[in-house]
Amino acid sequence: MLDILDHLPAKRKTSPSGWISFNAVCCHHNGDSPDRRQRGGIKATEQGWSYHCFNCGYTASFIIGRSLSYKARKLLAWLGMQEREIDLINLESLRHKSINGILEDRQQVANILQGIQFEERELPPGSEFLTDNFSVQWNYLQSRCVPADFPFMVQAMAKRAGVIVPFTHNNKIVGSTIRFLDDRNPRYLNDMQPGYVFGTDLQHSDWTHVIVTEGIFDALSIGGLALMHNTVNDAQARLIRKLGREVTVVPDQDRAGLDLIDRAIELGWAVSIPNWDHDVKDVNDAVKKYGRLGTLLTIMQARETSRIKIELRKKQLAKRLRN
């Protein structure tokens, strides 16, 4: 973990209570006169740090295991950190996230899914955790706007550069997919068991809704489930129903997505077909363009439970695809 104390101004003093005082770096950014009286203070602990300016009143804090807040990121930038360094702090923090908290949440979901089992499988040979040393894969994932704390993997010695996405169920590895990053086919190489749905282990126990998408990067970018094709087989439907949540299916806005709409109607699930721009074809495209929150809002606003209204939106989508 990068140490914020290494980036503080050289002129500083430490109080008996552990506060480090220095000329505050925030004041002139907030419309005040630059601080000349060391009225910026920071206190670091094993869990993180807190900052307070006694001149302009700016505050920020950080706890390991949580994402950097907007105010904390601004403070780090004012201290001279590069954006890349700040992103690394955020990534390392999320990797330190309490494993007990993760396991507890996942165990609650596992209890819900009790009775649905898949055989445990090995990851592709030579798999290792992705770091920023693998610049091609790293940059690709950043371009897809997926969570930095997901345990993506790579094969360092593979002939084709790719990203490995582990498939888990009840916290066990039950398969994987490799997304190759060149222009050759196949783009994906799946090890997927019948009836599997990606993303069940990523659901929070207190969530009341679940969003079902077609693609794996759609699910990762929105916190949903991925079918990895444009239909829902009976085993997948049972697994999704087992979660006991309100289901909203968001099909890709292409001809294949029309089939998923029919299947969702058959299952009695809600369907959302937002009025996205023409260059937005799926959930991940939407997240890249509108952000995660903006995409969630458009999905929930366009959510329909009426079969008649869903059929009408399907016809409108089909017409748009023909034009």
Written overview of the protein:
The mean pLDDT is 87. The chain is built from ten helices and 15 strands. The protein is α+β, with helices and mostly antiparallel strands and 323 residues long. It has a five-stranded antiparallel beta sheet. A five-stranded mixed beta sheet has the order 12-11-13-14-15, with helices on both faces. A three-stranded antiparallel beta sheet has the order 8-9-10, with no helix packed on it. The chain has helices at 70-78, 83-95, 99-112, 135-143, 216-222, 234-242, 255-267, 283-290, 292-301, 307-322; strands at 12-14, 20-22, 40-44, 48-53, 59-63, 127-129, 153-155, 162-169, 172-180, 188-191, 209-213, 225-226, 246-249, 270-272, 303-304. Helix 5 crosses helix 8, helix 7 runs antiparallel to helix 10 and helix 8 (283-290) crosses helix 9. Strand 1 and strand 2 (20-22) form a beta hairpin. 33% of the residues lie in helices and 20% in strands. The protein is elongated.
